[in-house]
Write a structure and sequence with these properties.
The protein is mainly alpha-helical. Among the domains are: 86 residues; 146 residues, no CATH class. Helix 5 runs antiparallel to helix 6. GO terms for molecular function: beta-tubulin binding.
């Protein structure tokens, strides 16, 4: 008996019906169908499952197409990275050229800064020495001493360099000699003492060479550390130079500002001279000054002539002393001419005091004319340090404001006078009305006249009140305008400017007058003393000649 006969489910037979296309497209379910299959180790080829990559939901097969796409993406990313590295390399090469050029520029600037620091030190040293009262010769002496010291240091440095080179050459020669002596000693030891002593000698030589190499390495490290230290000092020096460069830049900027201010001052002086040259009274004053200078030059010319005459007289005296022994024997024609010239010179010297007195009188007269013209000069115009043109504009503006305030004041005064006239007219009318009232007392219709007069009186009283109010208002305006004028900053500024300018010009004129007076007095006394001394000397010598 079949043991499976009692279980009909186990007796089912497999159906051989074919599946339709629609049945095949139905999604499979179950644990086996949901299992992910990765064919990572599957060999890549153009055969087999080239289209099963996205079939069956999460089932994925990585075939040749997938890996080809992945390789293309990786190749593109590698190409992009290569291009980026190439661009970065080119940029670094450009920067390397720029850095090299900048290093050269930094070296040149460092040399220039060093030279400028030397010049700045020289300038500051010269300024400090000049403040201490040193003269130009002292500064030149200091510069010569510094140059001598620098030359001495250069010579010492050259001597030290030559000594170092010679020491290095001697050291090389000594090393060669020591090597030769060492080899000779080794051969001698080998021949005399045997192989064992030679081996020990070679070991000691090797150890000595090792120690020498270590010494060279330590010296090299020491030199490297010295270079690092020198570089650190150089960097610190560069930082200090940058700070000094900032100070130098500030000094240059201040120097430029000073030069600009000097140019502005020169321009203002030229404008001032131009304005003064356009003034007719200034031109008259300048003409008088020129005339005084001409007279002074004439006096100097006369003094030069007197000096020349003194020299000629001295020469003549010398000649007279030479010819005195022969005077009693014979007097030649040339000697007579010489005596005539001496007498002529004496005559001119006798006329010189009168000429000097005339010149002094003319000079005093010109000074008096100058004083009179200066007294006739108008009130000076205000000038400030901001420039003549700005001062003139400010002065014109303030003058117009002052004129406007003056016009307002005149208008208020006119209104006040009109109000006073109206008040006076009303008073006259009131007196006339009172007189009319007195005349109308004897009239029968005195009541009507009185009423009419009362109306007129009330009307006149109202007019009087209105005029009084207008007068009070005008007085208030006048007081306000006066206060505004007194408190106006422009008016105060103008008054201060006028006062400062007047005091400055008076001081300048007093100084010029004092200087001119002192010059004239000193020159006159000096010329007078010279002339008197000259005349006394000539008279004494002529008297001596007459006695002989």
């Amino acid at each position: 008996m079949n043991p499976l006969a009692g279980n009909p489910t186990l007796m089912r037979k497999q159906s051989a019906r074919p599946m339709s296309r629609g049945q095949m497209q139905i999604g499979a379910t179950g644990k086996a169908a949901s299992t992910t299959v990765d064919l990572v180790d599957r060999p890549m080829s153009g055969h087999g499952m080239s289209g099963t990559r996205a079939v069956s939901g999460t089932r994925q097969v990585r075939d040749a197409t997938f890996f080809a796409t992945e390789l293309r993406a990786r190749i593109q990313s590698v190409n992009k990275e290569t291009d980026a590295l190439t661009n970065s390399t080119n940029e670094l090469k450009k920067r390397e050229v720029t850095v090299t050029r900048l290093d050269d520029s930094v070296k040149e600037l460092r040399q220039r800064v060093t030279a400028l620091q030397g010049e700045l030190f020289d300038i500051t040293h010269a300024q400090s020495r000049s403040k201490e009262g040193a003269s130009l010769e002292d500064l030149r002496t200091d510069a010569q001493k510094a140059e001598d010291e620098a030359t001495k240091l250069r010579n010492e440095a050259n001597i030290a360099f030559k000594a170092r080179e010679e020491a290095l050459q001697r050291l090389e020669k000594n090393e060669i000699a020591a090597q030769k002596i060492r080899s000779d000693t080794e051969h001698r030891i080998l021949n005399d003492l045997g192989e064992e002593a030679a081996r020990q000698f070679r070991e000691l030589s090797t150890e000595n060479n090792t120690l020498a190499e270590k010494e060279q390495q330590l010296r090299k490290q020491l030199q490297e550390q010295s270079q690092v230290t020198a570089q650190a000092y150089a960097n610190a020096f560069v930082l200090q130079n940058q700070q000094n460069q900032q100070n130098i830049t500030k000094a240059i900027e201040l120097h430029r500002q000073i030069r600009a201010c000097k140019r502005e001052i020169d321009q203002l002086r030229s404008e001032l001279q131009k304005d003064q040259s356009e003034d007719p009274e200034f031109s008259i004053k300048q003409q008088l000054k020129n005339q005084i200078k001409t007279e002074s030059n004439e006096c100097k010319r006369l003094m030069d002539e007197i000096k020349n005459m003194e020299a000629a007289i001295a020469n003549r005296k010398r000649i007279l002393t030479e010819i005195t022994p022969d005077v009693m024997t014979a007097v030649t024609k040339e000697q007579k001419e010489m005596i005539k010239n001496v007498l002529k010179a004496e005559k001119q010297l006798g006329e010189w005091p009168r000429q000097k007195q005339d010149l002094s009188a003319n000079t005093q007269r010109l000074q008096q004319q100058t004083m009179a013209l200066l007294q006739r000069l108008p009130a000076p115009m205000a000038r400030t340090e901001g420039g003549e043109q700005n001062v003139e504009q400010q002065l014109s503006i303030k003058t117009r404001e002052l004129e406007r305030l003056s016009d307002q004041e005149q208008k208020v005064l006119t209104e006040l006078r009109d109000c006073s006239g109206n008040v006076q007219q009303l008073n006259e009318t009131l007196s006339a009305l009172q007189q009319a009232v007195g005349d109308a007392e004897a009239v029968d219709d005195i009541a009507g006249t009185e009423a009419q007069l009362k109306k007129d009186l009330a009307k006149q009283v109202d007019q009087h009140k209105q005029l009084s109010a207008q007068l009070a208002e005008a007085n208030q305006k006048l007081n306000k305008l006066e206060e505004d004028i007194q408190n106006n900053e422009n008016v105060k500024t103008l008054r201060d400017l006028f006062g400062n300018l007047s005091s400055t010009l008076s001081k300048m004129y007093s100084a010029e007058t004092y200087i001119k007076t002192r010059e004239n007095e000193s020159d006159f006394q000096k010329d007078k003393q010279q002339a008197v001394g000259l005349m006394d000397g000539i008279n004494k010598q002529l008297n001596g000649l007459d006695k002989q």
